[in-house]
Amino acid sequence: MPVRWFLLSLALGPSPVVLSLERLMEPRDAARCSPGLSCHLWDGDVLCLPGAVEPAPGPVLVPTRLQTELVLRCHEETDCNLCVRVSVHLAVRGHWEEPDNEEPFGRAADPELEEPRNASLQAQVVLSFQAYPTARCVLLEVQVPTALVQPGQSVGSVTFDCFEAALGAEVRIWSYTQPRYQAELNFIQRLPDCRGLEVQDSIQSCWALPWLNVSADGEDVHLVLDVPEEQHFGLSLYWNQAQGPTKPWWHRNLTGPQTITLNHTDLVPCLCIQVWPLEPDSVRTSICPFTNDTRAHRNLWRRARLQLLPPRGWRLVSPCSLPTEATLCWQAPGRGSCQPLVPPLTRENVTVNVSSWEKLQLQECLWSESLGPPKDDMLLVETRGPQDNRSICALEPSGCTPLLSGASTRAARLGEQLLQDLQSGQCLQLWKNDLGALWACPMDKYTHQRWALVWLACLLFAAVLFLLLLLKKNHVKAAARGRAALLLYSADDAGFERLVGTLASALCQLPLRVVVDLWSRRELSAQGSLAWFHAQRLQILQEGGMVILLFSPGAVALCQEWLQDGTSASGAQHRPHDAFAASLSCVLPDFLQGRAPGRYVGAYFDSLLHPDAVPALFRAAVPVLALPSQLPDFLRTLRGPGAAARPGGLRNRAQQVSRALQPALDSCLQPPGARETGLEMGLEAGDRT
Question: Hey, what's the signal peptide range on this chain (predicted)?
Answer without folding.
Answer: 1-20
